[in-house]
Amino acid sequence: MSLEGRTRVKDDETGKVVTGIIKIPKLKLMSDLSIKLGSQASPIVGTFRAAGVPVGSRGSSYVSEFCFLEDDIDSDL
User: Fold this and answer.
1) Distance in angstroms (rounded) separating the CA atoms of residues 23 and 70
2) Deepest of 34, 50, 67, 77, by most Cβ within 10 A of its Cβ?
3) Model pTM?
4) By the 8 A CB rule, do 73 and 63 touch?
5) Mean pLDDT, the chain, whole residue set
6) How far apart are CA 72 and CA 38, in angstroms?
7) 57 near 12, Cβ under 8 Å?
8) pLDDT confidence of 72, banded at 50, 70, 90?
């Protein structure tokens, strides 16, 4: 499976909050994952374990990519 998500990151020097995007193209799930959806579902904070698998050619392989945007895309919510 793969994982893609976003987070908010505060710059250490300027203090500006920006959006960070993480991509893990090949991910191996190491634990059970259970999700309950719906209006009657109780909110649960779950944890899971996973391992990133390197992709790419030999000598230029990688496990994850981080991209930092110039602004916080969720700031208007």
Assistant:
1) 18
2) 50
3) 0.69
4) no
5) 86
6) 29
7) no
8) confident
